[in-house]
Each structure stands twice: as structure tokens, then as C-alpha cells.
């Protein structure tokens, strides 16, 4: 797979964990690469840019010192790193999420990340991650059909099937018809966005790290993402 080209007239979509911030054991300590806040600030002076994350935007704001427009909760929340309201989920979704949260299996080392009105279950620090994953799969199988399980990097989350990063970035790209979208991401929910942008003329989709992907290009790690972004300054 080729390294990504430098695109004229870009519209940036940047995933957070694993793209702007290295993956670490503690989700509450996932600070951005030290150069990222400054680079994002400078890019924003020249180009439209959105951070697109599975995180709740308030939690992102605690980690990320610069102000930037952002999509949170895998497409369900829109705001910025400094200002965002929780998304308005319907009653059925709220009730189902609350019921599923009350039934999360009790497994040593699981970490429940609160992202009101939803949550993520991390098993990176479980004593036996394979066993934890099996028990979480059994729990996920009890979810109603309208909730979809997303298995990320040692984490599982439930989202409404209608909320995807793909839908969110398509909507934003439609507001910028004169711009060429660039999407950089490392995880499974970024694949929705890669697919959603595939038929936009010239769009550039970039997978960070190894693993199967529908993206056109690849960068090896967060350092390489920073170097690529700096090529626009
Ligand atoms: O869409 P993203 O910005 O990539 O967010 C996806 C999830 O990232 C976070 O979890 C992941 O990163 C943690 C910190 O490096 C790591 O400990 C964890 O194992 C990873 O799964 C975040 O905590 C989740 O809320 C995001 O949905």
C-alpha cells in the first residue's frame, strides 16, 4: 500500500486514539502526541478540520488542550473539544443502554468508561483478556437488535446502528463541496468513514498501523501521522 500523497485544498478528518494520541493502558491518560495540539491549531488556521472520535467530547476536551470542531461517540455527538452537549438519544435507546450497563459481567480488571448516555467496556487490563472477551461477547449477544456492538482495541461499546462515523463525515463533506476530504484513522469504526468517503472524487483515506482496511493508504504510527500533517504547514 502506498504512502499518502499531499492533497490540494484538504478537509481534514482526524481520529483521536491511535492516530493523534498513542494507545496507552489507561484511557484517561491518552494524551496527544506532544506536537499534535500545535499542529492542529496551525492546520485550523488554513483548512477546515474535524476530530472524529469514539470518545465523549467532554472526555476528549480534558485530554486535548487545543480547541477544534469534533464529532464524538462514533458519530452520535457533534460539537468541539471545548463545548459539546450529550446527544439526544430516544427513550428506547436510553433504556436499552441503561439496562445493558447494569448487566456488564463482573470480570477482574474490566474498566467501565462512562460516556453519558453511553459507556465503553475496556478489557485491556483484564487478568485473562481472552476469557473477558468471551464473557463480553455473551453479554453483547443479549443486546436489542438496534444496538450494534463495536469491538475496538481491547474495548467493546454499544451504539445505535444509525450513528456511524461514516454518516457524520459524509454530512460534513457535503457542506464543503470545494474541498477534498482526508480521513486518518486506526480502528474498526474508522472503516465506516473510509467506506463513506470512497466515492468522493480525490478523497484520501489513510489507515494508521497494521490490519485489514478499505483505506487507500497507510501510515505506520502516530509519529508518521504528525509528520504527514506537518507537510501541510
Ligand atoms: O475513535 P477513537 O478516537 O479512536 O476512540 C476509540 C476508543 O478509544 C479509546 O480507547 C482506546 O484507547 C485507549 C487509550 O489509548 C486504550 O486504553 C483502549 O484500549 C483503546 O480501546 C477510548 O477510551 C474509547 O472511549 C474510544 O471509543
TrEMBL record:
Keywords: Hydrolase, Magnesium, Metal-binding. It comes from Longimonas halophila. The lineage of its organism: Bacteria, Pseudomonadati, Rhodothermota, Rhodothermia, Rhodothermales. Belongs to the trehalose phosphatase family. GO terms for biological process: trehalose biosynthetic process. Pathway: Glycan biosynthesis; trehalose biosynthesis. It comes from the Bacteria. The gene is otsB. Coiled coil: none annotated. This is Trehalose 6-phosphate phosphatase. The keyword Ribonucleoprotein does not apply. Signal peptide: none annotated.
Amino acid at each position: 500500500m502506498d504512502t499518502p500523497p499531499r492533497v490540494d485544498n484538504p478537509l481534514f478528518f482526524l481520529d483521536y486514539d491511535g492516530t493523534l494520541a498513542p494507545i496507552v493502558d489507561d484511557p484517561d491518560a491518552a494524551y496527544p502526541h506532544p506536537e499534535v495540539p500545535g499542529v492542529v491549531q496551525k492546520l485550523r488556521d488554513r483548512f477546515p478540520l474535524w476530530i472524529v472520535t469514539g470518545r465523549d467530547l467532554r472526555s476528549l476536551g480534558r485530554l486535548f488542550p487545543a480547541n477544534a470542531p469534533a464529532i464524538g461517540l462514533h458519530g452520535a455527538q457533534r460539537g468541539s473539544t471545548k463545548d459539546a452537549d450529550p446527544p439526544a438519544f430516544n427513550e428506547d435507546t436510553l433504556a436499552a443502554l441503561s439496562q445493558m450497563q447494569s448487566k456488564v459481567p463482573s470480570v477482574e480488571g474490566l474498566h467501565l468508561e462512562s460516556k453519558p448516555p453511553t459507556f465503553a467496556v475496556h478489557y485491556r487490563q483484564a487478568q485473562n483478556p481472552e476469557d473477558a472477551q468471551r464473557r463480553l461477547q455473551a453479554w453483547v449477544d443479549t443486546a436489542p437488535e438496534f444496538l450494534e456492538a463495536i469491538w475496538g482495541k481491547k474495548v467493546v461499546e454499544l451504539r445505535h446502528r444509525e450513528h456511524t462515523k461514516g454518516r457524520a463525515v459524509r454530512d460534513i463533506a457535503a457542506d464543503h463541496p470545494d474541498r477534498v476530504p482526508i480521513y486518518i484513522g486506526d480502528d474498526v469504526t474508522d472503516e465506516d468513514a473510509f467506506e463513506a468517503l470512497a466515492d468522493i472524487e480525490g478523497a484520501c483515506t489513510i489507515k494508521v498501523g497494521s490490519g485489514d482496511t478499505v483505506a487507500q493508504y497507510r501510515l505506520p504510527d502516530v509519529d508518521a501521522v504528525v509528520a504527514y500533517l506537518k507537510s501541510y504547514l
